[in-house]
Amino acid sequence: MGMAPRLAVDAAYAALSLAALVLLFTHGPTRWPLDEFRRKCEADIAQAHKAGDALSYRDRLTAKHSSPALWCSVSWSLGTLLSSKWHLLALANALVASVSLTRKVLVHYVLGRLVPGSGAHHSYDRILNFVLFKVVSVRATLDADWEDLAIWTAAYCCFGTLYLVGGLARDHLEGLRLTPAQPGVCWWFSGLMVLVLAVTAGMGALCWALLRPLFSILCIEALTIMFDVGQTLVKYAAYAWDSDSTESWEARSDAVLMCEFATDICILLLTLAHYTHILLINGATLNIVSVLVFFNIRSIASKLYSKTRKLLAFRKAVESMRRQFPDATKADIVRFNDRCSICREVLATAKKLPCDHLFHRSCLRSWLVRHLSCPTCRIALATADVGQWAGSSASPTPDAMEHGSDLVFAAASSA
């Protein structure tokens, strides 16, 4: 059976599973009608609010006090879903079927068209780290009831799914850039990125409308995903736009790298503010949650400092290369009839080393960060010729290829 018929079978099964869940949810036995339950629930919350003292900042972050109507609706829904084992089985079956179908559709119609391989190990790591740090965040922020936990879990599941799709797209784009240039634009991929941006913005607006006191926490998730996906979209546009033109790519490479630096730094700044806020909410108490949050803050601050240094080093690299190595003339390129020895593409513009070998500017810059020699004849280049931006070691640092949004969730592990 081909992929399309199997996807059709999976889609039919997911539709039947969702229909069964909706049928049980709407026609199953309930202890209270929704409207009656909501009126009683909201009245109890208002009475407790009037009888009690002023709410603390931590209590105002709970959905029970920030959105009583939402809290009561979730309470009624949980009571219905947990009323019998059939409801639980229908819920679990619908979730598994929907997630499986979504993954297969993305891989087959969007991501699978770009490069082979699924990058599954990266996805598992991202899911594990995301779940770990969101559990820490919720535990440090509030002592939640089941209703609060259900609302926070739903919000983080939506944001986590969007983050995971963005990470998969980034992995596939990195693999695509290592393959021979493919002309044209994959509109499925571009459409997916635009859809993720739109859904993320919609999630942020929904959090503002329904969970306004929690917006200071949840908006960080939306902004982080938007920066991450926006960076991937910009890099793919730079790759797909006239990808067979070396000259135009050379003119855009610095702008793409600056965009990557800027978005990574913004993601790290947002995450640093996020965990600082959580630490303030949790208070200066000596417990495992405070220790984890503190070390996460420390590690993210260290990554931010490292990323800033790399940005300054990159600017020095561009300036040093401009001063030390002249641009090859058209006559030089014609005379040598050469290809770039690093990427093996035809030279349209090039930099010339003292040994007269020609290379693309971006290719040469990446090479000289790791090796102080000519890529072709291996003649040694003096540090003074290359500039101080060339690293003191022959290999990149362990986090040289890390991405800002991955550092967010890998920080405490490295601490």
Structure description:
The chain has helices at 3-27, 34-51, 57-60, 63-66, 68-81, 85-110, 120-141, 146-177, 187-210, 215-240, 246-282, 288-324, 330-336, 361-368, 383-386, 404-414; strands at 351-352, 358-359. The chain has 415 residues and is an all-alpha fold. It contains 16 helices and two strands.
Query: Radius of gyration, Cα only, in angstroms?
Result: 27 Å
Order of helices and strands: HHHHHHHHHHHHHEEHHH
Note the total helix count. Answer: 16
Structural class: mainly alpha
Quantity of strands, as a count: 2
Distance between the termini: 48 Å
Main β sheet profile? 2 strands, antiparallel
**Helix proportion:** over 70%
Mean of the pLDDT scores?
A: 75
Q: Strand order within the widest sheet?
A: 1-2
Uncertain ranges: 114-118, 244-248, 387-415
Shape, principal axes of CA atoms = elongated
How large is the share of residues in beta strands?
A: under 5%
Question: TL;DR of this structure?
Answer:
The chain is an all-alpha fold. It has 16 helices and two strands. A two-stranded antiparallel ribbon has the order 1-2.
Features:
single chain, mainly alpha, two-stranded antiparallel sheet, disordered C terminus
Structural topology:
Layout: H1 3-27, H2 34-51, H3 57-60, H4 63-66, H5 68-81, H6 85-110, H7 120-141, H8 146-177, H9 187-210, H10 215-240, H11 246-282, H12 288-324, H13 330-336, E1 351-352, E2 358-359, H14 361-368, H15 383-386, H16 404-414
Helix pairs in contact: 1-6, 2-5, 5-8, 7-8, 7-12, 8-9, 8-10, 9-10, 10-11, 11-12, 11-16, 12-16
